[in-house]
Write a structure and sequence with these properties.
Number of domains of chain A: 2
Number of strands of chain A: 10
Helix content of chain A: 10-25%
CATH class of the largest domain in chain A: Alpha Beta
Order of helices and strands of chain A: HHHHEEEHEEEHEHEEEH
Largest sheet of chain A: 6 strands, antiparallel
Strand order of the largest sheet of chain A: 4-5-6-9-8-7
Distance between the termini of chain A: 28 Å
CATH architecture of the largest domain in chain A: 3-Layer(aba) Sandwich
Oligomer: homodimer
Chain lengths: 270, 270
DNA sequence: CCACCCATTATGTACATACATTATCGTTCG
DNA sequence: CGAACGATAATGTATGTACATAATGGGTGG
């Protein structure tokens, strides 16, 4: 504690000269960034290096606090964050344990196709092929919406340097987004318009591989049967469906990529 | 502040009778769960309902603090968490703003194929087709590994009720995981073995759609050209490659699905 | 008038304190 | 001996206080 006071008034960076040793135990804090981040790195490091094995119990907050020479609150913050990120499991009275069997998830960014194309330095265009207003159940049924609810359907093609790369088929819940009825979509693609305008709170996705039908193949300018990535996404707001969209992209012109999520290690520059 | 004292000693649940009104302003806190969660819900609610628009500036911590009748620290915790989840953007001196253009990511679970099959109530089996030890650059090149590094290659098929559903082609860095050389994999599939045994800290993924080659089609028991989902994943630990794996699954027997990530709204039961 | 500088403001971090909550573990009682 | 119970140890939450950090926006001097 007392050694803390010596450097009180020094927060965040500029703690250069002060590495672990100055905090009592000699357990390595690197002196970079906020204290709680240093603790996170130190603890995550012990785990990643196998020093603390999966399932093993960590010292309690008091002990860590004196081990690293910081207050219990600071340790608590660091450990609570690691727990939130899935590295640790905490149980009152029982203690803190290294998480076992980390089932990972990976994150795929949902990017606007226009952004992707533009980032590749290509010219993006889109064309609305069809636009219809109808009621749910009339020819089309959107399962999560009651029959008779007004729906706008949009069919759209996306181009990169003039080459078709993605087909989009979309349903929009007109009860939830009435303004869409007056939007011509002559300069802005529906997906972009919706992202910018309509708040949403959750979404579900399904990714599959399918062979292009003759019709789709013709639209996308490929041989029938070409493998395509099919992405279905339903977006909701306050548990009300907003839009249901089906993207079809030619396999060798489009891919999804991403990194693991709770990537504390990356975050922590390890 | 003073109204807080009236109920000091009451934390977490059991705050039934005390709704917003008791905290001064009448801005709705629902009295359920920790105070900072209530604040999170209240603020996220305002945003989702469009009461606070995208890009708009929120009241500062002091104001929110008196608005909700809690301390600045509690407000800070709630707001900081919402910012961490991507709902808000904070800038010192400038203030707190509702995040604009929320780029969503969605989470795909990385499940062991065996678990998936078992959950469907089917019988899971796998078969190792080939296993070789070689050095990087001899016939195969793993770009992220230096030439000459020892590699174990595994080729493997996964079955559901006797039907082939996934082909796996894997490279393992023997420098990083030497024990794998002695593992026969006669009861446990390589993926499972690795997950259970080897710590890892990050991973990269790419998902594509491809047409089955004649060879793959034969192995998977489908027509050549059938659309397949191709997943490439490289797992690292402390910035050292551990394993590089390539899964190929028949399109209509396998799909990926998941929900959006920063789903504060779901978390918050909205 | 523009560039620079500095006061101000809002967020960020750290520590101390106090009490709540929860589940484990040991003890006691039937 | 087993079930119930209560002390206890661990994490969780809330508040007060203090100061750090960053950047805005206005004022000042050239």
């Amino acid at each position: 504690m007392s050694d803390r006071i010596a450097e009180s008034g020094v927060q965040g960076l500029a703690r250069q000269g002060l590495t672990g040793q100055d905090r009592g135990s000699g357990t390595a804090l690197d002196g970079k960034g906020p204290l709680f981040d240093q603790i996170k790195r130190a603890v995550a490091g012990q785990i990643l290096r196998g020093r603390w094995q999966a399932g093993e119990r960590l010292p309690n907050e008091e002990e860590l606090s004196s081990l690293y020479g910081v207050s219990r609150q600071t340790v608590h913050k660091a450990i609570a964050l690691l727990a939130r990120e899935g590295f640790l499991v905490r149980r009152r009275r029982a203690g803190t344990f290294v998480a076992t069997g980390r089932r990972d998830r990976f994150a795929l960014p949902i990017e606007d196709i226009g952004d992707v194309v533009a980032r590749d330095g290509r010219v993006y265009e889109f064309r609305i092929r069809e636009r219809k207003s109808l009621r749910n159940g009339e020819g089309i049924r959107w399962p999560d919406l009651p029959d008779g609810a007004p729906i706008l359907t949009l069919e759209c093609l996306h181009f990169s340097d003039g080459m078709p790369i993605q087909h989009e088929w979309r349903l929009v819940n007109l009860d939830a987004v009435p303004e869409v009825a007056d939007e011509p979509f002559d300069s802005m693609a529906p997906s972009r318009w919706l992202v910018d305008r309509v708040p949403w709170s959750s979404a579900e996705h399904t990714v599959r591989a399918v062979n292009a039908t003759a019709e789709m193949a013709a639209l996308l300018g490929v041989e029938p049967g070409t493998a395509c990535l099919s992405i279905r996404r339903q977006t909701m707001h306050l548990s009300r469906p907003i839009t249901l969209v089906h993207f079809l992209s030619v396999g060798d012109r489009f891919s999804l990529s991403g990194a693991s999520i709770t990537d504390s290690a990356t975050e922590l520059n390890m």
